[in-house]
Design a protein that fits this description.
With 392 residues, this protein is of the alpha/beta class. Helices cover 28% and strands 23% of the residues.
Length: 392
């Protein structure tokens, strides 16, 4: 990591008042609590938990998942797969549809002893995966993506192509199982809607697995999951593993769905007040969409949170203050619902809670880590610095 001349390095930063802004902060206490909550739920449901590490892209954060012992994980890029393999992770699912150009990197990881499962949803993909496996003399463990809600990719469990795909993969020794993701659960606004989304996710995946088995094809893995459904599921009979990623940090979208509380959000971005436009009711900060991302996920919820809610450095919400606009390097804070615009002089530091933790985390090269169980006489103390392993 290169630190610009004159900047405060992670090694010299002592409190949130020290590093140059904007920068990302992770509360390790909240992160641990979020991790423990879902792990306990998966245990009660009797399924393995395969966390999605695309949110933090950090070996340090992943180390919290299983007492610093590598556990099964999900990734969304081959760069993530390679970085986590370098970190000792050997059981990885690459949960994005495969194409021929990526197969050499997949095979390289398999030859290193990494069990890397790939994903597809067509006979075309199955054919080139089967051929690559035969040419390499190495099985490529492959899951068939099942469409449970029309959100994105996948085949329907009753599709004619499903057993055809399964047969092509099985004959090449590549069929591992099925995987689905309830993407529409991010628009399930009540606990009952989320429970039904989780039930549909399970029912769809299990139906696809049973159809393949009825065709004489073995199905070892039945994988389901999204952060909303993982926290809403009450019965995962027939499922072997549960996936989720956002839950490690949570964000305002998840809070807006009722999956978590604002107090559970473990990721924030520290910004500095750099100007005022009192005639417009604006406070200007040095954190724009390059710090927060352009994600406006709460815009479709009952309460639009703009680009993020504002807290002081201790994490206390500033009543009524919202980041309502962003340019590349500037954020605009305004008061809403009749709230009083606070007097925040130039140089005041604030924290912004993000709409989408995954997207905000992707804007930063690492995280300054604090522990909200520890009191501070001035600004919260920085405990350590966790680097992201990919994406910067």
């Amino acid at each position: 990591m290169n630190i610009p001349a004159g900047a405060t390095s992670p090694d010299t930063a002592r409190t949130l008042a020290d590093p140059d802004t904007p920068f990302a902060v992770v509360d390790v206490r909240k992160t641990r609590r979020n991790i423990e909550r879902l792990a306990a739920r998966a245990g009660r449901l009797g399924v393995a938990l395969r966390p999605h590490v695309k949110t933090a892209k950090s070996l340090d954060v992943a180390g919290l998942l299983h007492d610093d012992t590598p556990c099964p994980v999900t990734v969304s890029t081959l760069a993530e797969a390679e970085a986590f393999a370098d970190g000792g992770y050997t059981d990885i699912t690459y949960a994005v549809g495969i194409d021929p150009h990526k197969l050499p990197r997949v095979l390289a990881l398999l030859r290193r002893g990494v069990t890397l499962r790939i994903l597809l949803d067509s006979t075309e993909q199955a054919a080139f995966v089967a051929e690559a496996s035969r040419q390499a003399g190495l099985p490529l463990p492959t899951q068939i993506e099942i469409d449970c809600d029309g959100h994105r990719g996948g085949v329907k469990p009753d599709a004619t192509a499903l057993p055809e795909i399964g047969r092509i993969l099985h004959d090449a020794g590549c069929l591992d199982g099925v995987l689905t993701h309830a993407g529409e659960s991010y628009f399930a606004h009540t606990a009952e809607e989320q429970r039904l989304a989780a039930k549909n996710e399970r029912d769809t995946a299990v139906a696809a697995a049973e159809r393949l088995r009825a065709a004489g094809l073995p199905v070892a893995t039945v994988s389901v999951g999204s952060t909303p459904t993982a926290h809403a599921a009450d019965d995962l009979t027939g499922v072997t593993e549960l996936r989720a990623g956002n839950y490690v940090f949570f964000d305002l979208v998840m809070a807006g769905l009722g999956v978590c509380h604002i107090e559970d959000l473990a990721l924030s971005v520290v910004v500095t007040v750099v100007g005022h436009r009192p005639e417009r009711g604006w406070i200007i900060t040095d954190g724009g969409w390059m710090a927060m991302s352009r994600d406006r996920g709460t815009a479709v919820q009952a309460q639009d949170q703009g680009y993020g809610l504002v807290t002081d450095l201790d994490g206390n919400l500033v009543p009524g203050l919202v980041m309502t606009a962003a340019s590349q390097e500037h954020g605009t804070l305004t008061a809403r619902d009749g709230a009083h615009l606070p007097d925040l002089p130039v140089g005041t530091r604030l924290r912004i809670l993000p709409n989408h933790a995954c997207a905000t985390a992707a804007q930063h090269h690492g995280y300054h880590v604090i522990d909200s169980t520890r009191t501070a006489s001035t600004a919260p103390a920085i405990q350590t610095f966790w680097e992201r392993v990919t994406g910067w």
